[in-house]
Amino acid sequence: MSTRNPKLALFAQFAAVAKSLAHAHRLELLEQLAQGERSVEVLADRTRLSIANASQHLQHMRRAGLVANRREGKFVYYRLIDDSILDLMAALRRIAERNVAEVERVIRSYFHNRDSLEPISRAELLQRSRTGEVTILDVRPEDEFALGHLPGAVNMPLRELEKRLAEFDPAQEIVAYCRGPYCVLSYEAVAVLRARGFKARRLEDGLPEWRAAGLPVVTDAA
Amino acid sequence: MSTRNPKLALFAQFAAVAKSLAHAHRLELLEQLAQGERSVEVLADRTRLSIANASQHLQHMRRAGLVANRREGKFVYYRLIDDSILDLMAALRRIAERNVAEVERVIRSYFHNRDSLEPISRAELLQRSRTGEVTILDVRPEDEFALGHLPGAVNMPLRELEKRLAEFDPAQEIVAYCRGPYCVLSYEAVAVLRARGFKARRLEDGLPEWRAAGLPVVTDAA
DNA sequence: CAGTCATTCAATCATTTTATTGAATAAGAT
DNA sequence: ATCTTATTCAATAAAATGATTGAATGACTG
After folding, report:
1. Which of A85, B16, B45, B208 to pair with A35, CA 20 to 30 A apart?
2. Which of A83-87, B1-5, B108-112, B174-178 shows the lowest mean pLDDT across its residues?
3. Residues near A37 by beta carbon (within 8 Å), at least 6 away in sequence
């Protein structure tokens, strides 16, 4: 850890932080953590990792100072150390998106034509929701919704969406959001809604970014 | 490269970008590149890597979209793809600085007491330099100075500093800068100047950040 | 206190990454 | 053309990292 050259030692520290980001599974864990605190078990389940493996990745990130944990009874809950982690991930994403051709290919093949899913900005949504012009749709699972959601949002996990289309006002535009810029749920929700003739768009990014922008978040009382 | 799960594939791309940052030598190369274009030979020399090794690290970063290169005659010149790389490095540094105790230790042991070297902000320097109150001192090597420096700056590489102290006006405060927040040169310059009774401070960060902030940079005609 | 559950630890194996070496290219220079 | 110089490539050896397994820990429950 301690090199003879102090500048190199310093860069080695920065590299250690970068290294703990430099793994698909760990980024996935961070995406989950961006929603809020989670136990190891839940994280392992959502990312389809074994418990032991998830635990090790989480500890790795803890040592690097990306996440923190606390024990409560039998469970250990992990959380992001603070919102600067979101900044770091956003900077990473910006570069990956801009520069790596492969990313574009993946985005395109998965999200079909991304352009037709132009998102609405946070500022615009905030303004239009004040005048009651839009229906805000949160397509995340119920437990994530309960932990925090946009004011006035309706929670309808993707699986229920098709059954509950009657609840929407066909005259209003629907803005769907989910976990973040690469959460699939809201893309799929918009696709379903449009197929049924609704006017629907995605919100740019997702809840963690909304919260990080200092905008209001509603938490259900426990 | 292509996982069955598209979200994971996407994260794997982001991870690839992070991975190419996650190495002390590569961060060092990037710090050099933040100054401007450099040939492989110069980069290898400055970072004390073998040519082949430097070349491989540079190619790795090129594949990840962090740097670009061009051939001119016998030389291959590398450069940062754009300033978003500086943002990424800054985000990394912020987290490493805040969260990793080891970094503090390294900074302290190397820079002694950092607090006594409180830097001056870019805004303040800009303002005070307009009224001619300060001497701006660039302590980088001459070739880097020639490629771009702050308006009105005097170039005096560290080695020459002690011999040329007579050139300074003892009544004026001296603001030293160099390559960036972890470039050692300006710290040392301030230490030397203060020991000789001059009023001296560092500029926050360094030239790449000054340039990235959209502030004026002077290039010597070739 | 024994039992159960969530998490971590330790050991192992497989995989990936890094540095080094010497040969291969590519572009002037003689 | 041949020589020289700058860079890249290819092969190898050394080191680090990741996943899996089963045992160990810590904390609640009956």
Report:
1. B16
2. B1-5
3. A77, A78, A79
Task: Find chain A residues with C-beta within 8 A of B57's C-beta.
Answer: none
C-alpha span between A201 and A208 (Å, rounded)? 18
Q: Does B22 touch chain A (CB under 8 A)?
A: yes
Instruction: Enter the tokens of residue B54.
Output: 């430097």
| Per-residue pLDDT tens digits for B157-203 | 988 999 999 999 999 999 999 998 878 788 889 888 988 999 999 99
pLDDT in tens, A180-218: 887 878 888 988 898 899 999 999 889 999 999 999 999
The catalytic site residues of B sit at 178
Given A9, A17, A96, which is nearest B17 (Cβ)? A96
DSSP conformation letters of chain A:
---SSHHHHHHHHHHHHHHHH-SHHHHHHHHHHTTS-EEHHHHHHHHT--HHHHHHHHHHHHHTTSEEEEEETTEEEEEES-THHHHHHHHHHHHHHHH-HHHHHHHHHHHS-GGGGPPBPHHHHHHHHHTT-EEEEE-S-HHHHHH-B-TTPEE--HHHHGGGGGGS-TTSEEEEE-SSTT-SHHHHHHHHHHHTT--EEEBSS-HHHHHHTT---B----
Give the tens place of pLDDT for each residue, B55-107.
999 999 999 999 999 999 899 999 999 999 999 999 998 888 876 665 566 56
For residue A3, the distance in angstroms to the closest alpha carbon of chain B comes to 10
Backbone CA torsion sign across A181, A182, A187, A189 = negative
Higher pLDDT, A4 or B197: B197
DSSP B165: G
Angstrom CA distances, B5 to A26, A145, B207, stand at: 15, 24, 43
Strands (E), B6-60: 38-39
Q: In chain B, which residue's Cα lies nearest the Cα of A110?
A: B6
State the pLDDT at residue B107.
62
> What does the pLDDT read at residue B3?
42
Residue whose C-alpha is closest to residue A176's, from A156, A196, A202 = A202
The active-site residue out of A178, A200, A203, A207 is A178
Answer yes or no: A183 catalytic: no
pLDDT of residue A104: 63
